[in-house]
Amino acid sequence: MPKEPGNLYVKYADGDDGTDVIPAGAAFWASPSIWLTDTAGNSIPSAQVGVDNWVHVRVDSTSTEPYTGVKVQTWVCDYTAGFIGPDAAQSSSGGANGRTATVGTAVTKSSPGTMHVVWRPTNADLINGPNPREGHLCVGANVYVESPPGPEGARLTGGRLDVINNRHHGWKNVTVITKTLRLAPFAFRLANPGAEPDEFRVRARELDRGECLGRLEREHLLMRDFVDLVDGEPRPDPVPALCQTEPLERTWLAQGGRLVLRNMPEPAELRPAEHDAEFTIRTVNPACEEREQCGDPTRVRIRPGELTPVVFVLECDGDPGEVHTIDITQRTGEGAVIGGARLIAVHVPDWHCR
Fold first, then answer.
1. What is the CATH number for 167?
2. Starting from the edge strand earliest in sequence, which strands make up the sheet with 71-77, in order?
3. Both 280 and 348 in a single domain?
4. Domain that includes residue 103, residue range
5. Over the stretch 11-49, which tens digit does the pLDDT of each residue have?
6. Residues 6+ apart with CB under 8 A from 15
7. Which residues have C-beta within 8 Å of that of residue 168, sequence separation ≥ 6?
8. How many folded domains does the chain comprise?
9. Which of 2, 53, 89, 252 is the most exposed place for a label (fewest CB within 10 A)?
10. What CATH number does residue 192 fall under?
């Protein structure tokens, strides 16, 4: 598929400068340029039903020429369709049309811009998880401009996002769980985006020690109430949602400090785990009883319109504060990645998060 030309883009990773194609196998669903806050500007790891939540999307450019009137569409999506975008959007986020807002400043290579839009989840968004009081959804974004030096990109009213081939698109799907001595299951569902029954491969890959606690992971951990920052500057005051240019945690972490577990009798700094994780992927699909054993893919045959429950189970032990970061991907039988999620697991004492 040809690459969509243009200068505006949504970062898929921290080091992304928009000049290169996204490499094969990259976790393009972990954009650092998409985040959630409450109305006061406090970052939130997950949205709350029945109240206003803000979705923020930062837009970067490879050009020194200013782009004005840059617009961003956002959708909150049920990723079990095998893709995200207008055709997978939840009605609470505007359905196929999504929610659109204009970046309030000009966007250049040296001056990114940020848009902000309100999303109020409903009970219908509490899907894709074992807890009926929680949901697991993805945020998708599409950038376009209709004024000079554009036009660039295009408004969407149907179809799906193609982050790999269109840098105007962005995807965010990152989850944090705690891991005690008990098993730590992470449930999700898979679907077939095609028109015929097909076989898919589900695989989990643990990031190595040098990757597992990057800036994105540290930001997400600091959003959680069981994590604190010590030996650094005091927590900055939140910036009102409409004025944000980056998550509060990004500003705070840039001033130094160490992440630790809260309320511990002995200091427990968050750090890469000493030993690799042990995990399995289990499916209730009667056509497939295979289980992934730390790297071998689980094969799942799915009919169009069918939702297949899958459970990822982390079974290894560890010391308090140790962190595993794992990418879970769904691929076609030919090996093409069609979606994924990044899971950050933190070892805590059994009593810690009750």
1. 2.60.40
2. 99-102, 71-77, 138-144, 169-172
3. yes
4. 8-172
5. 999 999 998 888 877 889 999 999 999 999 999 888 888
6. none
7. 4, 6, 8, 9, 10, 142, 143, 144, 152, 153
8. 2
9. 2
10. 2.60.40.10
